[in-house]
Write a structure and sequence with these properties.
It holds the Pfam family Glyco_hydro38C2. This protein has 825 residues and is α+β, with helices and mostly antiparallel strands. Helix content is 24%, strand content 33%. It contains 13 helices and 46 strands. The chain has a nine-stranded antiparallel sheet.
Length: 825
């Protein structure tokens, strides 16, 4: 028998640091597996080993430094091949775009600094699906190639397993889908696997890769593996059965330049249940991502303006925790229960570092604002035990906006005030609202609307007893019975079900919904394992929450709130429907006490349009998907638009959220997935009374309904979703002289399509890094200004393009574009 093609044999050791074990066990296994790989390199002079994940190398460096030196020598020799370029093999749908950027930044720089090389091949052989923006993220992280395994051929048909993968901006990588698993255990014959791939290579007209080595819990290539390969080489020739690496494979294929199909799509679907498992870790991920970005922005500002040291190392530690918890079996929610207790600790450290660094920066800035009043001679709390207000001159309250555009947002001051004014002395309307405390009669806070500059702050003055003649809210928000109404929307709630009976967009006199909305649908998922293996959708409806109580909590003028409480079996769903004056979105704060098992909760919104189209946010971009009811991963928003019944034009409804990652759309019905309750790490196992079910008990999150006329692209949906996720941050101040004004703008971007996600210290310490991306899928010219640095420049963005700018400290040096690793492009 002859072989006709070169088969590249890839010696690897697939190793989940967390899955059916905790990270401590993964830590130990990584050391043992790396030791085994080094032994094979000594025993077999032609053996080549391939390994990804910077986090693993960091563990070796800190705990087995002598072995780390051996690895460095093997990397220099060219027999230990570094691939992946990321901190870990993450879930490739659920992290934010900025998180993917950080995987490339911290992973590739680690490899460059420790080994003098960067990965050329992206490598996520175990991740469950791959978002459509990855080609651009890979290219801008220094990687031209990609290896993956899922979805397999039963889950997604591809013309070939080797293809050009292209993202919406036009970036391309050469991608290879493994035809068979990344491992060979004792029951699998390497020779049979090689011969099957030789036949596939005949059909495809190009070489194939075959991965071998004991995997999942580490192990890697065995002596028996390499002896079997040696026997094959003796029979078929070393050129045909090649001990190789992904680097060599792609280099040879790129040189051969075969005709390859182009895939311009996401690579899905595998394990659809992983987008909605373990709500707590998903919420912590979203919060941590945004908190660290806010901490970086204001730490940069406090350093620029006031010399506060930038906490680079601490922030990197926090990002490493977040990136580790984005590992696909953690963020995918399919590990053991103990692993999520560890994830809680990791997110807790990251969130705490974020909180402390953000607070230090904000307090440094607010303490340096000139808030002195002529009437104040010295600080004294003679008037009030809580506030520093002197006479009737007010207390300064600093409102910070981390976002890259000016916002007009509701803010709560946690005292009861008689009046509030802005930094120019203009009185603003206020509303007394219930506080979270019940301290005698002291249970009231004060709501007002703040207008705050982009990536900046503004001081508002709060008066305990001095009433200010603010202009009335026109028209005020009204809440009465089962109706909420402001200038833009009228919301009617069905009294007994608690569903939205009508959502009227007064701007277009259009009924947004085609039937009852916010319907809490209970889905049967007894047939699903934790991952949702083998499934496309969750649509086996078995009931609804009902038996509702509707109560008016707040009745304007700035905010109206209806509280709707409904029940299903022993579970209780509380939805606070909130309208703000001046806002065309219905916000909903949700508290769910979930007691169901092997069931899922979705909120249903039938959008009143024909010929519906569904679009969802993906990392640094968006994607249109079929309206076929399949369970999909999403980020901060998804949208259903179409033709209004009996009318011309286009209208739609965007559904925004601050903690959820899954949805489905069937025809015009949009469903947001709220929770599901399999038991932990169930791979269609034997179910007994000792299992523990996921997500039992109370959880809270928020979502918003944003009706729009025309396309979502022209409706500010991306910004509104960020505003739901990144509310303003506030600091109480007192009276002091200071070098800073009472209002400050940190950034100005002329195009509404461009969002700046990150502003941080450059990794080389010689300037600032700002990252932006185009949000609407249309080319954009924009002017960018950083007033505090006296910098401004123009930039042209292609559709969905990510740009990273390096702003040197030396003002004579120009702003330049760099890649995600902060190296020249």
């Amino acid at each position: 028998m002859e072989m006709h093609n070169r088969i590249h044999l890839i010696g690897n050791a697939h190793l989940d640091p967390v899955w059916l074990w905790q990270w401590q066990e993964g830590y130990a296994e990584i050391k043992a597996t790396f030791r085994s790989a080094l032994d094979r390199l000594s025993e077999f002079p032609d053996f080549v080993f391939t390994r990804s994940c910077a986090a693993y190398y960091r563990w070796i460096e800190e705990n087995a430094p002598e072995m780390f030196e051996e690895i460095k020598a093997r990397v220099a020799e060219g027999r230990w091949i570094i691939v992946g370029g990321w901190w870990i093999q993450p879930d490739c749908n659920l992290p934010s775009g900025e998180s993917f950027a950080r995987h490339g930044l911290y992973g590739q720089r680690y490899f460059q600094e420790r080994f003098g090389v960067m990965a050329k091949v992206g490598y996520n052989v175990d991740s469950f699906g791959h978002n459509g923006m990855l080609p651009q993220l890979l290219k801008k992280s220094g990687m031209d190639y990609y290896v993956f395994m899922r979805p397999d051929k039963n889950e997604k048909e591809l013309e070939r397993n080797l293809f050009w993968w292209e993202s919406e901006d036009g970036s391309r990588v050469m991608a290879y889908r493994l035809s068979e698993a990344y491992l060979t255990n004792k029951d699998h014959s390497i020779e049979e696997k090689v011969l099957r791939h030789d036949e596939m290579a005949d059909r495809d007209g190009h070489a194939h890769m075959v991965f071998y080595g004991v995997g999942n819990h580490g192990g890697g290539p065995t002596i028996a593996n390499l002896q079997a390969i040696g026997a094959m080489q003796a029979q078929y020739g070393e050129e045909q059965v090649a001990l190789s690496s992904p680097n060599r494979y792609f280099a040879e294929l790129a040189a051969a330049a075969p005709e390859l199909p182009v895939v311009k799509d996401e690579l899905q679907m595998h394990a659809i249940g992983c987008y909605s498992t373990h709500s707590e870790s998903k919420e912590n991920n979203r919060r941590a991502e945004h908190r660290l970005l806010s901490a970086e922005k204001f730490s940069a500002m406090a350093n620029q303006l006031l010399g506060l040291p930038y906490p680079k190392e601490r922030l990197q530690t926090a990002w490493e925790n977040v990136m580790f918890n984005q590992f696909h079996d953690i963020m995918g929610g399919c590990s053991i229960r103990e692993a999520f207790q560890d994830a809680r600790e990791g997110y807790g450290e990251a969130l705490n570092i974020g909180a402390k660094t953000l607070n230090a920066a904000l307090q440094k800035l607010s303490w340096s604002i000139n808030t002195m009043k002529p009437e104040v001679k010295s600080l004294s709390k003679e008037k009030d035990w809580l506030s520093w207000e002197h006479a009737d001159v007010g207390t300064p309250y600093v409102v910070f906006n981390p976002l890259s555009w000016d916002v007009e947002v509701p803010v709560v001051a946690n005292r009861r005030f008689a009046g509030i004014a802005d930094d120019e002395g203009n009185a603003v309307p206020i509303q007394t609202v219930r506080a979270s405390r019940t301290n005698g009669s002291d249970k009231w806070d004060t709501l007002f609307t703040a207008r705050v500059p982009a990536m900046g702050y503004r001081v508002y003055w709060c008066f305990l007893t001095k009433e200010l003649p603010a202009a009335p809210v026109a028209p005020p928000v009204e809440a009465e019975g089962c109706v909420l109404e402001n200038a833009f929307l009228r919301v009617e709630i069905q009294p007994h079900t608690g569903y939205i009976a009508r959502l009227l967009d007064k701007r277009t006199n259009t009924d947004v919904l085609g039937g009852p909305g916010a319907v809490p649908i209970v889905i049967d998922e007894h047939h699903s394992d934790t991952w949702g293996h083998g499934l496309r959708s969750y649509r086996d409806r078995i009931g609804n929450f009902a038996d509702a109580e509707v109560k008016v909590l707040e009745n304007g003028p700035l905010r109206g709130t209806l509280r709707v409480t409904s029940r299903y079996n022993g579970s209780v769903l509380r939805q606070d429907f909130i309208l703000h004056a001046g806002a065309a979105e219905l916000q909903v704060k949700v508290q769910l006490d979930w007691r169901e098992q092997h069931k899922m909760l979705k909120l249903s919104f039938p959008v009143g349009v024909e010929q519906p189209e569904a679009v969802s946010e993906i990392p640094f971009g968006h994607l249109q998907r079929a309206v076929n009811g399949w369970e999909r991963p999403g980020q901060q928003w998804f949208d259903v638009s179409g033709k209004p019944a009996g009318a011309e034009g286009k209208r739609g409804l965007a559904i925004l959220n601050n903690a959820k990652y899954a949805y489905d759309v069937l025809d015009n019905e949009a469903r947001m997935t709220v929770v599901r309750s399999p038991f932990f790490a169930d791979h269609y196992g034997v179910r007994d009374e000792l299992v523990t079910y996921m997500d039992q008990g109370v959880q809270e999150f928020a979502y918003a309904l944003a009706p729009h006329e025309g396309s979502w692209r022209d409706s500010g949906i991306v910004r509104k979703a960020f505003e739901l996720n990144v509310p303003p941050v506030t600091i109480w101040e007192t009276y002091h002289e200071g070098a800073l004004p009472q209002q400050l703008c940190g950034i100005a971007i002329s195009s509404a399509q461009i969002v700046a996600t990150a502003f941080k210290l450059a990794e080389d310490g010689d300037g600032w890094i700002m990252r932006c991306y185009e949000t609407s899928g249309r080319p954009a010219e924009t002017a960018i200004a950083l007033p505090q640095l006296d910098r401004q420049w123009n930039s042209a963005f292609g559709k969905c393009e990510i740009k990273t700018f390096h702003i040197p400290f030396d003002a004579k040096l120009p702003v330049r574009e760099v890649n995600l690793v902060e190296f020249p492009q």
